[in-house]
Design a protein that fits this description.
Length: 389
């Protein structure tokens, strides 16, 4: 990190993989002034992508970029890069994440942090060998103000004994059977996890951050569209090899009470009527909550003290973990969650702490638990069995 003219530090970033989420991070860095109390500021100094198509957008909007390359090794060897955001297909995670960590670059990586459990374990071995390198995984949805409030309720043990938990991430992006195949439907690029590798960490984030311990899983996986067009305009169809939808029932323990409860986890790429819906529901003996990004300001809350059971709706507004210039009465959205997630990464890297338990990014340890869940889910579906996690 470098020191600018002011007291704020500059964290120089290279982006490896300049697709949708690479642009989202760059956009968040461009509006860093929206935050009011960040200890450091990310500056984009390098971009790397297989295709040159995105480079024009980056260089036009970010004059701080002095390295444009097709080879990620150039980014890792640059003395103008402190940290990297790696947003690549899953089959490249093991190679590039390990190389970045060994190069001493701090890492923010896309889920699932390895195409399979073996790849994830190899990454974690290298992380343990380089304790001075800060490594985290993306997952932005718990930074919605309503979910931050749910996290505080968990911390304060307001739910009583947990009765059940439901989390999920639902898309309808693959509803069109005429949509050409992409890499997420190919095992060699996406892995056997299918939709679980693509969306699962988002649905695991809150339960794993809460410290709830998954024990066993029974999974039902669905490959709904088994063939797709090879390319736009083509009449040739090729096999779709990965799972479209996954439903997991997980036997889970709350270590605070020692009691067990069912956790239902759903990740769907074919969910009719759902654009991009992330949700969490928790039922407890003292309180219950429901939140869905379809209604981003709305937190449904039931508090039970022996009287009548009444659901109330709370408008959460713009009450964020990391302060911004936006007033609390306004709406919070996807790009705000991205900014908050990156604020969390920069804050923890700069200060070695987070302001609250749920105001931090996904850790490698939490990702490792998600891999154990998904690996057991594959075995469960194949054998129609309950598998240990």
């Amino acid at each position: 990190m470098t020191q600018g003219n002011s007291s704020i530090k500059t964290l120089r970033f290279g982006i490896i993989g300049c697709g949708l989420m690479g642009r989202e991070f760059a956009s968040a860095a461009a509006r860093w002034c929206h935050l009011t109390d960040s200890p450091a500021q990310p500056v984009i100094t390098a971009v790397c992508n297989r295709s040159a198509k995105p480079f024009d957008w980056f260089t036009k909007n970010f004059p701080t970029i002095d390295l444009v390359t097709h080879d990620y090794h150039d980014v890792l060897s640059s003395d103008q890069v402190d940290a990297v955001y790696i947003a690549l297909p899953h089959h490249l995670h093991r190679e590039v994440y390990i190389a970045a960590i060994k190069a001493g670059k701090h890492v923010m990586g896309e889920k699932p942090f390895g195409i399979d459990r073996d790849a994830n374990e190899a990454i974690n071995v290298v992380i343990a060998q380089h304790p001075d390198v800060f490594v985290r995984c993306v997952s932005q949805f718990p930074f919605f103000p309503a979910v931050q409030r749910i996290g505080k309720m968990i911390d304060e043990k307001q739910f009583g004994q947990i009765i059940s938990v439901q989390t999920g991430f639902l898309h309808s992006s693959d509803m069109d059977v005429n949509k050409p195949i992409n890499w997420k439907r190919m095992i060699q690029y996406n892995g056997e996890y299918g939709v679980m590798g693509d969306l699962g960490m988002h649905a695991c984030h809150v339960p794993l951050r809460a410290g709830w311990q998954p024990n066993h899983v029974r999974a039902i996986l669905s490959n709904i569209v088994t063939e797709r067009l090879e390319a736009k305009g083509s009449e040739t169809k090729v096999p779709c090899e990965t799972w479209d939808n996954a439903t997991l029932l997980i036997d889970t323990t709350d270590p605070v009470t020692g009691e067990k409860f069912p956790w239902t986890l759903r990740t769907f790429r074919i969910a009719p009527g759902e654009k991009n819906s992330w949700y969490v529901q928790i039922q407890g003996t003292k309180a219950c909550v429901r939140f869905d990004t379809r209604n981003p300001k709305q937190l449904e809350l039931l508090q039970y003290d022996g009287g009548q059971q009444v659901w109330q709706t709370i408008q959460t507004g713009y009450d964020t973990a990391y302060p911004t210039i936006t007033g609390p009465i306004f709406e919070f959205g996807f790009t705000d969650a991205i900014l908050q997630m990156w604020a969390a990464y920069v804050f923890e890297l700069s200060t070695n702490k987070i302001p609250s338990k749920f105001a931090g990014c996904v850790t490698p340890q939490e990702v490792a638990v998600s891999h154990r869940i998904f690996d057991a889910a594959l075995k469960s579906h194949q054998s129609t069995s309950v598998e240990s996690i």
